[in-house]
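quick one: adenosine-5'-triphosphate bound model?
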Amino acid sequence: MSSAKPMLEARHLVRSFGTGDTKTTVIHDVSLDLYGGEVTLMMGPSGSGKSTLLALLSGLLRPDSGDVFALGQRLGQMSESEQRRFRLRHCGFIFQGFNLFPSLTPREQLEMVLRWGEGTSQREAERRVEEALKQLGLEHRADLTADQLSGGEKQRVAIARALLKNPTFCFADEPTSSLDWHNGEQVVQLLWAAAHERGAAIFIVAHDARIVPYADRVYYLEDGRLAADGAASVRTHPK
Ligand SMILES: Nc1ncnc2c1ncn2[C@@H]1O[C@H](COP(=O)(O)OP(=O)(O)OP(=O)(O)O)[C@@H](O)[C@H]1O
Ligand SMILES: [Mg+2]
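yep, here:
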């Protein structure tokens, strides 16, 4: 079930790169909403602007014009450090290619988020990490270093790291693209559960149409514009 009011509202976003003759507009007047308890999927061809849009929605990149309101706050009015604090507190990120520290174990990668990000006590961090590892079926791999894990295992650690602090928002850029579908589906199921069991607003950028059944709303981006006037196809019974 989604809450009626969006947790994030993007209005008329425009973003270009370059200057003068080489200036290209990559995002043209995109407006959309993200809801708690829902998975929003953004599809579209390579180069259509999906990653740029994800960066705009999460405040990693500032728009040339337009606004993003997240939890009622206008991201554009925050200073860099306020935006950073907002992300630390409310956002989880999953980028393509895992972004794990190669020499740390899954246990260490996860504990670090709680100890450094949230100031959780050692004992409490250990308890929550143990629980997350169990949920992921990674207990037996918990003390290997990241470079000893398979791609699927690494991506599950990356997802766990993004979801561990129970973020309000989770932004995932091609979370399954380097995985076979068996592992990819597990990853999507974790994201689905974060939305449907914990009320998070999940934004997934992906090419893979097999994710569609797990999405509550599906948008298509073409040359920086939302297809069909931004109308998302809304699924009444996802998954
Ligand atoms: N920092 C940048 N400087 C200049 N151009 C950029 C920059 N970031 C993105 N672009 C351009 O913007 C366009 C959209 O890029 P973006 O990465 O958002 O696409 P995408 O839909 O995520 O593609 P893919 O599916 O391949 O990841 C591309 O033409 C890209 O070259
Ligand atoms: Mg991309």
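The chain has a mean pLDDT of 89.
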